[in-house]
Write a structure and sequence with these properties.
Blueprint (H helix, E strand, L loop, with lengths): L6 H34 L4 E17 L2 E16 L22 H30 L1 E9 L4 H5 L6 E5 L2 E2 L3 H9 L7 E7 L2 E7 L2 E3 L4 E3 L2 E7 L3 H27 L11 H15 L4 H23 L7 H14 L5 H30 L1
Antiparallel strand pairs: 1-2, 3-10, 4-5, 4-6, 6-7, 8-9
């Protein structure tokens, strides 16, 4: 007996499968960082799990429990005694997290975000080696544009904007996209071996509702081996800058809750990208999925470094305080702070999930 499925159903299944693959790669790399450094420092890992909620399956190896849980909204590497609420410190074993030296604990916590950046760099290496990169060289200057009025020409290589170095064509696009107030941009460029600087006042486009300089950049660069390593770093840095600046715009109200996505929104993004790329073959689909995974890996690394309770950044703050004052914050007090932060994080996840559902369905 065979079961028929509509063509659209296959596409949704494939998109969900691709989302899970990306999710597992990004989250496992983060938790694996904690795990490896904890083991190297003799810290006991009680449980290593991916996902949240009830466990789908689990097994025990050594003194660690490994689990896969139902909801694809995170994961954790749980250390003995890390929350400070279970027992008094003296009752923990020698391998408990609070008994490790402060810098061993700092390295263990910091390793999660670090592994996200290392994973992102490896992904960027693959992308650049396969696809090459782009130079911030002007391909076209639009007639009557602000760039033309400032004297920019096709062939000019942009090196800095507002004093900050640019390396990729995408850097120029990002700066203009995030210039939501239409502020004047100081553009430094090279032409015929000479460096020049001009001020460009972007003009507003009513149709797109954003400001433009009126240029197209992004000349293809087929990278050699040294350039592959160099431009892979530039690519990873580009995603880091995009994430960091987007967070700033979210805090200041320049972006809204509709610009934030959770698991449902990410599945929709993966589905849209898959739908657009599948006509060009499996390799194009794989490249686009790798690009999404790169972005999410950088995003997870940066988000976890924010100095907020329950996140790695919040734990690092407490460890820095301990290193400075020579003694830890009372474990029960730190545990309460992180527990409150975790509760707030869970509420935020529910809000984002509800927003995704109302936005896409």
């Amino acid at each position: 007996m065979s079961i028929l499925m509509p063509a659209g159903g296959y596409k949704v299944v494939v998109s969900i499968l691709l989302f899970f693959i990306i999710f597992f790669i990004v989250v496992i790399s983060h938790e694996l960082g904690h795990f490896i450094v904890a083991k190297k420092n003799g810290i006991r890992v009680v449980e290593f799990f991916i996902g949240m909620g009830p466990a789908l399956f689990s097994f025990v190896k050594g003194d660690t429990k490994y689990s896969l849980k139902l909801l694809p909204i995170g994961g954790a590497c749980m250390f003995e005694g890390e929350d400070g609420l279970e027992k008094e410190k003296g009752e923990f074993s020698e391998r408990a997290f609070p008994n490790a030296p402060v810098w061993a604990r700092f390295a263990t916590i910091f390793a999660g975000p670090l592994f996200n950046f290392l994973t992102a760099y490896v992904m960027a290496l693959i992308l650049v080696s396969v696809c090459g990169s782009t130079l911030p060289q002007i391909q076209k200057v639009n007639e009557g544009s602000a760039a033309q009025a400032a004297g920019l020409e096709a062939g000019d290589m942009i090196t800095r904007i507002n004093g900050k170095r640019v390396h990729l064509g995408e850097d120029v696009s990002l700066i203009t996209q995030l210039n939501v107030k239409g502020e004047a941009l100081t553009v430094t460029y090279e032409r015929d071996g000479r460096e020049e600087t001009v001020v460009v006042q972007p003009t507003y486009d009513e149709t797109d509702q954003r400001y433009y300089m009126g240029i197209s950049t992004g000349v293809y660069l087929d990278c050699n081996v040294p350039q592959t390593f160099q431009y892979a770093f530039y690519t990873m840095s580009f995603y880091a800058k995009a994430t960091y600046k987007s967070l700033g715009m979210l805090v200041t109200g320049q972006l809204s809750k509709n610009d934030v996505s959770g698991p449902v929104g990410l599945v929709k993004t993966v589905d849209d990208v898959y739908d657009a790329a599948k006509a060009y073959g499996a390799i194009t689909v794989a490249i686009n999925m790798l690009n999404i995974a790169l972005l999410l890996s950088v995003n997870l690394g940066i988000m976890n470094l924010l100095p907020l309770p329950a996140l790695d950044g919040g734990r690092l703050v407490f460890l820095l305080i301990e290193a400075v004052r020579g003694k830890p914050v009372p474990p029960e007090k730190e545990g309460i702070v992180h527990l409150a932060g975790m509760a707030a994080l869970m509420i935020l996840m529910v809000v984002v999930l509800f927003n995704d559902i109302t936005k896409f369905f």
